[in-house]
Amino acid sequence: MSDGGYYAIKGFEFQIDKTILELFNTDDTTPICLEQIQDINTNDFVMQVKYKETQKYTPAKIKEPIIQLINEYQAIPTKKYYLYCYFNNVKEENRNFTSSEIDRVLGNKKDDFTKPIKDGFLSNFELHFSKSFQEQFIQAVEIIKSNSDCSNFDEALVHYGSIANHLRKIVTNNLDIKKRTCTKSEILAIITGNRKTVFDSAYRIYKGKQQYIAEIKRRHFTYRNIDNWERFLIIELSGSEDVSAIKTTVYNIKKKYYKKLVREIKSGAPYIYFINISKDNLKRLKTELIAENNIIKDGYDFMDADFYTKSLKVKSTIKNEISMKFINNNDNLKAMLGCDLGCTKKIYQFYHTTPIELSFDIDTVNIEISKLSEIQQILK
C-alpha cells in the first residue's frame, strides 16, 4: 500500500473515532449523518474532518474545506459549521477567525464571497485542532467504557471494534447517502447485545500482535469443555496462500476440535469455510486430505449432486470417522447456519478485509488476521 493509501485509511478511521465521540454527545435519537453533506452532520451542525499527520499547518492547507463549508453555510445559514483537523505542529485548541484571517485562508478566492456572507459564516464557524490519532482513539474507547457496564478498558476496546465496524458499514454499504445515518441508541444496542464480537486492527495496534493473539486465545479458545457445540470456522484467504499452508490450518482446526476417544466421539468434526479459495485449490486440498486417510463431508454425495444439508449435518461417530466438514460457498453456509443441528452453534470468523454479514442470531467472534499462520497461533 502506498503512503497516500495508508494515510487515507487512517484519516477515515480518525473520522470514525470522531463520529463515535459525537454520537455519545447527542441524545439517544438524534441521527448523526456520515458522508452526506460533509464528513459528519446533524440537523444542527456540519463538520469537515481532516487528518494531516505528515503536514504542518498553514492557512492555505485548510482553504478547500473552508470553501466547502462556506458554500454549505450559504444554503443553510442557521447551522453551526466546524472544521475539525489534525496537523502535526498544532496542539489541541479551538479558534475563532477574524475577517482578515478568513481572507488569508481563502487567498485568491476571498473575493468570491461577499463581506456579509463571510461575516455571517464566521459567526457560525469554529476551527478545532484535535488531539493526535492515538489520543482521540483512547478518548473514543473511554467514552464507550463510561457509557456501558464495561469493567475495564480492554472490554470497552472490544465494543469499540463492533461499533467502528458498524459505522464503516453504514458508509461503505449504502450507495444511497440518505441511509448513512446512526443514532446513539443504535450504538448502545450494539453494546447491550454484542454477540458478534469484533477484534480488529485497532485492538491489535493498541495491544501489540502477540498480546492481541494471546487475549483472543484466552477469551475464546481456552476452555475445558468443548462438547455439544457445532463450530463454524470461516476463514478469509488473501488468495496468495498455497495449498500446503491451507492444509496445515485445517489440521490445526481438526486437532483443536475433533476429539475421538476409544468408545465415543467427544467432540465432532467442525465446519470449515474458506473464502477466496479457488476451485482447483479446494479440490486439491480435499484430495490430499482424503489421500492422508481423513474422512471428510461437504454435502455433495456424488458427481453433479445437489447440496444436501442432511448429508453434511451427519454427526461424527466412531464408525464413520468423519473428522472434517467443508462448506463450499456462501449459499451452503447460510443453509447450514439456518438448519437445526440439535445443539448450540458458534461462529469464529477470521478475516483480512471485513467480516461477511451473517443474519443469524448465533454467538460469533470476528477476528482480524494479517496472515493465515496467526490462526494456528490462536488455536494451538
Provide a descriptive summary of the structure in words:
The protein is of the alpha/beta class and 380 residues long. The chain has 2 domains: 3-189, no CATH class; 195-379. Helix content is 43%, strand content 20%. It contains 14 helices and 16 strands. The chain has helices at 3-24, 63-75, 99-106, 115-123, 133-146, 153-172, 184-192, 201-207, 209-220, 243-257, 279-291, 309-312, 330-338, 373-379, and strands at 32-34, 40-41, 45-52, 80-87, 93-95, 125-129, 181-182, 196-199, 229-236, 259-260, 265-267, 271-275, 295-297, 322-327, 344-351, 363-368. The strands form 3 sheets. It has a 7-stranded mixed beta sheet with strand order 5-6-4-3-2-1-7, with helices on both faces. Helix 1 packs parallel to helix 5, helix 5 packs across helix 6 (153-172) and helix 9 packs across helix 14. The longest helix has 22 residues, at 3-24. The two termini are 31 Å apart. The model has no long low-confidence stretch (mean pLDDT 92).
Give a quick precis of the structure.
The chain is an alpha/beta fold and 380 residues long. The chain has helices spanning 3-24, 63-75, 99-106, 115-123, 133-146, 153-172, 184-192, 201-207, 209-220, 243-257, 279-291, 309-312, 330-338, 373-379, and strands at 32-34, 40-41, 45-52, 80-87, 93-95, 125-129, 181-182, 196-199, 229-236, 259-260, 265-267, 271-275, 295-297, 322-327, 344-351, 363-368.
Question: What features would you highlight for this structure?
Answer:
seven-stranded mixed beta sheet; alpha/beta; 380 residues; seven-stranded parallel beta sheet; 20% strand; 2 domains; 14 helices
